[in-house]
Each structure stands twice: as C-alpha cells, then as structure tokens.
Amino acid sequence: MAEQPSDIEIARAASLRPIEEVAAELGIEAAALVLYGRQIAKLDLAWIAGLEKRPRGRLVLVTAITPTPAGEGKTTTTIGLGDALRRLGARAAICLREPSLGPCFGMKGGATGGGWAQVVPMERINLHFTGDFHAVGAAHNLLAAMVDNHLHWGNELGLDPRRILWRRVLDTNDRALRSIVLGLGGPVNGVPREAGFDITPASEVMAVFSLATDLADLEARLSRLVVGLTRERRPVGAGELEAAGAMTVLLADALAPNLVQTLEGTPAFVHGGPFGNVAHGCNSLIATRTALALADWVVTEAGFGADLGAEKFCDIKCRIGGLEPACAVLVASVRALRHHGGAAKEALARPDPRAVERGLSNLERHARNLARFGLRTVVALNRFEGDGEEELSLVEAFCRDRLGLEAVRCSHFAEGGAGALELARRVRSLAEAASGDEGRRFRPLYPDGMPLLEKVRTIATLIYGAEDVAAERAVRERFAELEAQGFENLPVCIAKTPYSFSTDPYLRGAPTGHVLPIRELRLSAGAGFLVVLCGAIDTMPGLPRRPAATRIRLDRTGRIEGLG
Q1: Alpha-carbon gap, residue 337 to 352, rounded angstroms
Q2: What does the DSSP 8-state code read for residue 177?
C-alpha cells in the first residue's frame, strides 16, 4: 500500500483556482477584491456594506464532542461538508477562524484541516497570512503602552497602578510571560507594577475585531475597552485615553474578511481567531454575515467541544450578531469515544467496543445540550483507519434509539467532499425541516436580564452537568460591582479547560456532581461579554515537552517541512 501523503504534500499538489474565479462564483466582482497574490484576497469593506439588505442563506454550525488526543476532525468536517454541499449543486461557502502561531508551533503544527479536506494555500494561512493577527497584537499593545505612558506623565485620570487590568499580548506560547514586573530601572522607565502577557487570540481586541460589524462599530467598541480602575474603583476606558482612533487605524485593513478556497475550490472566508476555551471561539461576525449574503449555505465551526464553542456561538455571537443557525453537526469519532470510555492513550487506535459504549455518555450530553438551544442536530461519525464495524454500528444504533438522531459515516479526510455527500444531504433535509417548524426555534440558553452569577450557574448546571458553582467572597463582590456599574445584561464567556465538562482535564466522559470553581472575572466591555476564568485555565499557554516547532524547517529547496 502506498504511503499516505502528508497534509502539506496534498496541499502543494493541488491545482488552485485564481481567487478572482472563486470570488465570481459568489457574485463578488473583481473590483471588490484586494489581492494578496493569486490565491488570497480581502473584500473591500465599502462593497460589503452594500450587501446589508440581501436575503441571507442558511447557517450550519459544526461542533464536536469533548476534544481528545485521538482527534475528532471538526475543521475537516466543516471543510468536507462545504465541499459536499457544493458538489450537490448548492452555492456554498465556509467560515473558519485564522490559525494562531501559538498552536501551530506548539501542539498542532497547523490548523487548516487535513488530508483532502483543507483550506489553501495552507502554508500562508498558517504563517502570517494577511497580517491580521499582527494588527490585533499591535493595536492591543499600543493601548498597553498608552496606559503606562499615562501613568508616567502624571496620571490625570487617577488610575490605580494596583488595578491596571490591561495586559500585553503575544502570538506565541510562552509560559514565562504569564506574570511579569515592568517599569523597573528608575523613574525614567515608568511606574513599576505587576503585569503579564496573554496569547493574542485571548486579547479583547481580538474579540472586538471578531464581533464588530464595520469600522465605526469597531472604533466604538474599542473606546469601551476597560483598561483599569481608579482608587474609587471607577472603570477607565480606552476612549478616555484617546487611544481608540489610532487602534482603529491599525485594524482598518485587517477588518476586511479574507477569501481563500478549499482543495476543491469551495469559497472559504478565514477571518478572526479567538480561542474557544478562553474567548468566544468563532470566526468574525463580518465574515459570517458577508458569506450569508453571498451564499445559500454557509458552514462554520466553533472552537473545541460543544460545551465551549457551541455554547458561546449561541449565547454570545448569535445574540450579539442576530444570527440563527439552521441546524448543527456534532462531530464524533470512534477513537475519541474510546478515550472517553477510559481507553489508554496507546490503545486508542485499537478496536474496543466496550470503551466506545462507555464513552457514548459524552456524545449524549453534547447532543442533549444542543437541543437546549432548539437546534436540530445530525451526528457526523468521522471515519479513521482502525475503526471497527461493531463500534460504528454501536454508535449509529445509540444515536438512533436513544437520542433520536441520525449518525452519518463520513470519510472526507480521505475522499474530500465525496466522503461527506450523505452528511450534506442530511444537513439539507434538517435545515429545510427546521425552517418550517415554528414550534422548535433557536434560542439562547439564558435571558439578558438574568444576574451574572446565575448565568454562570445556568451554564455550569445545564451544560457541564455541575452541581453548583463556587466563588470566593471577592469574586462575588466583583459580580455585584459589575452589575452596579451597568454590566448586568452582558452574556458570560466561561474560560476553562476544553478537555472535560469539569475543570479537571483528566475527568473524561460526562461527569456529574462536580463544582465549577470561579477564579477571576475579566470585563470585556468592548466585546460585550464578561470572561469568567474557572479552575486552573491560563490565558497564555505554554509549549509542550516537544513543540511542533522542533519539526518545522525549510528543506534544501526552500520549501517548508513539518507544517500541518
């Protein structure tokens, strides 16, 4: 048997369409494109503004069971489904987030899909792309510099140096920067204080960038960024530092959505990059809205498992952006279910029907959680080499008999869109049924007016299966303070480990009876939500023992090796 080519070899061998041809398929005129070479373009924001009154296509959300070392294939399913819908004759587009250099050089080695379900050109998308991440980092760190400059030059606004909330960002995993002291070396170097770095996808500027509807909305949101508190605990915003205008200038070109394509030539909007465990985990709102105005079917994904990405997609992005998904796709794999059933890491590639049976509790909870949002759901059973027929049949029967859902076997990694045709047919049927069912409509999990702590408790008990939440007195007082300051109607964005329903990353399956410990609150007033840090989650990841960076290099011809 011939050896399977690597992802990067498959991507390089692809014959790509000129980006003008990809754009024309969606009715985008050449004058609306800002070209970044032959296969990448941004869409002119003024042209996008003219799409506002067009009818919208159907939006399909792709999410997954709790992530495992075995992999589930959420991004490849998003790409394969988009390709399959296009093969069925639909005008289709997909919407994905931009890869962060942190995971690319840390755990993943790339984030553009895999096999024959990829967005391309994969090397450029994974490495710098159109510079959007750099623009977000520059805008964020400009504000950080202006905060410290304000302290240095007299602190007219009365910021309390002990209560500066605005950290710096870097798009690299670097645990040594989580907590730092800056301003050392005497008065000329500023005011000494404790600070720290987050990874760029955790930046509130990234969240604002991903939720803004146009440049005016972007600047208005940036002006509401809270950088710190006075001694009287009054919030001080970026607008008071007169920073929002310059930040908008840095982000103006980046805000235009990026257009690329899949290996099969399906239009793909890759834009924005908030993480799903520490931020809201969805591609940009402006890219999603643009795609919906141009395509009849738009397939998008939300980060990590459905307890994080899908919950935030529904409760934050859809609430803020006025979106309503037509249906959801819940991605699972037999080998991931083995993991949730207790199989050891070294045994995940071997058939184990009993482990799969035990692991189905994780799939069940995610499926029932999606039903809480009124979403019609189909399970995408992502095929991998080594899957046993008994295991596949077990999952199909469980979904049918216990959950009332259809599980569709998919092989898009190996076959591209052809391997997801049955999934595409089922998605099309579900979405059409949903449009005629007034009794089962999409809805957020909680109302705007619910108290902030109760919103967290609602997610913890209904979505995570927790018994309750735990919060120290200082955290409870901060909840009360935020409500008194007028932030009571914000949705909450829970930051926790993505590897369990609990805050213990080693607790597999569908645990119950656990408690969600709330460690810290971070107000994202510009983005329009409250970040609730739980357990030991960090907003600046560290590198693994052997980072992907150790495998990435140039060969003798100057081509990249080890990416993907």
Answers
A1: 10
A2: G
Q: What is the DSSP string of 364-396?
A: HHHHHHHHHTT--EEEEEE--TT--HHHHHHHH
**In the structure encoding, which two tokens stand for residue 506, read together?**
């080693």
Distant-in-sequence, close-in-space partners of 249: CB < 8 Å, separation ≥ 6: none
Is 509 within 8 Å of 341 (Cβ atoms)?
yes
Cβ atoms of 177 and 538 closer than 8 Å: no
Find out whether 342 and 358 touch, Cβ atoms under 8 Å: yes
Backbone angles phi, psi at 107, to 5 degrees: -90, -45
Neighbours of 232 (CB within 10 A): 7
Q: Residue-wise over 288-321: b if at least 16 C-beta within 10 A, else e?
A: bbbbbbbbebbbbbbbbbbbbbbbbbbbbbbbbb
Mean pLDDT, the chain cut into blocks of 10 residues (564 residues total): 80 95 98 97 97 95 95 94 98 97 87 95 96 98 98 97 97 97 94 96 98 98 98 96 98 98 98 94 98 98 96 98 97 96 91 96 98 97 93 98 98 97 97 72 95 98 98 97 96 97 96 97 97 96 94 93 86
Element (DSSP H or E) covering residue 25: helix 19-25
The pLDDT value recorded for residue 1 is 43
- For residue 43, the one-letter residue type is L
3-state secondary structure of 59: strand
In angstroms, the CA 417 to CA 295 distance is 18
Residue 119's φ and ψ, nearest 5 degrees, are -100, 145
Q: What is the pLDDT of residue 345?
A: 87
Within 8 A by CB and 6+ apart from 196, the residues are: 167, 168, 177, 178, 179, 180, 540
Q: CA neighbours within 13 Å on the CB side: how many for 297? A: 28
What's the distance, CA 177 to chain centroid? Answer: 23
Q: CB under 8 Å to 478, separation ≥6 — which residues?
A: 521
SS3 332: strand
Contact between 523 and 492 under an 8 Å Cβ cutoff? The reply is no
**In the structure encoding, which two tokens stand for residue 511, read together?**
């645990």
CA distances (Å), 296 to each of 56, 60, 289, 358, in order? Answer: 7, 11, 12, 39
Which residue shows structure tokens 């990590």?
304
Tell me, letter by letter, the H, E, C secondary structure of 27-65.
Answer: CCCHHHEEECCCCCEEECHHHHHCCCCCCCCEEEEEEEC
Question: Which of helix, strand or coil describes residue 214?
Answer: coil
Cβ count within 10 A of residue 322: 11
- As a dihedral over the C-alpha atoms of residue 522, residue 525, residue 530, residue 534, rounded to 10 degrees, the angle is -20
Q: Do residues 393 and 357 make contact, with C-beta atoms less than 8 angstroms apart?
A: no
Which amino acid, 83? D
Q: Which amino acid is at 108?
A: K
Say if residues 287 and 269 touch (Cβ distance below 8 Å).
yes
The CB density around residue 148, as the number of other CB atoms within 10 Å, is 21
What are the angstrom distances between the C-alpha of 432 and each of 207, 300, 398, 437? 32, 18, 25, 9
Please, what is the end-to-end C-alpha distance for the chain in angstroms?
A: 22
Contacts of 207 (CB under 8 A, 6+ apart): 274, 279, 280, 524, 526, 527, 529
